[in-house]
Amino acid sequence: xxxxxxTHDRDAAVRALLVDTVAHTPRRRRRWRLPxxxxxxxxxxxxxxxxxxxxxxxNPDPAAIAAQNRAALVVGGAGPSYLEVxxxxxxxxxxxxxxxxxxxxxxxxxxxxxxxxCRTGGELxxxxxxxxxxxxxxxxxxxTSDTYSAKAIAGREIRIxxxxxxxxxxxxxxxxxxxxxxxxxxxEQAVDDGIVTRSEYLAAFDRFQGCMTARGASLGRIPTSxxxxxxxxxxxxxxxxxxxxxxxxxxxxxxxxxxxxxxxxEGTWGSQRYDPAADPRYAG
Length: 284
Description:
The chain is an alpha+beta fold. The protein has two domains: 123 residues, no CATH class; 123 residues, Jelly Rolls (Sandwich), CATH 2.60.120. Helix content is 30%, strand content 23%. It is built from six helices and nine strands, in the order αβαββββββαββααα. A hairpin with a 2-residue loop joins strand 5 and strand 6.
């Protein structure tokens, strides 16, 4: 049985994690807060990479020219459609090892995105400050990407090591996010005590739906009986705007309180059964 002290400590920990998550996570369309697979495999190449001055060795072969010509299109298409490309993204092709040194973000940029495509199969390893960050198999034609805030990645160096015969195309560059609203007073009140109950979770989702409808992007009829509500909309700007205003912090807290069941993924999100009797602490 939990003691009052343990309960207080856990509430404080949840609140601290919530504040840190909301403060340091870039606004983006997100129903699933656990690590997800983008493309056939996850080949993490840039745990922290950003800079207005992005430098890498030149490779003036036709494939490199094609990669550079497509870089803006690739980077601009890697995130929500409302993000704007800032500066000139870089397109690189190569094999074996590559080092990217990055500086400060250009004026107006707040987000950095990289996109990697393996032209042949093999294994990629990413190192930062000499420490291995990730190693992954990468099939030919598979693509993965990631996005980082400017504050988190300025001045970093990425070292990519690849199997000798593995060929890759890497595109990376800066994006600007249009202004997003702060959390509404109702959303802040729901998370202020460090606990989000089921009724607060559903009330926040109702406000989120109302926001979407008001912006002309109704979600339609969305089932709300599962542990996590699953939703989507083609208007990504409206979606992210309303998530930031009405749902993001509450959704984060609810997912911290309720870890996803074993085996859950994007395909099953929204189908996990919610049993109030088994969740007395948060069912109110």
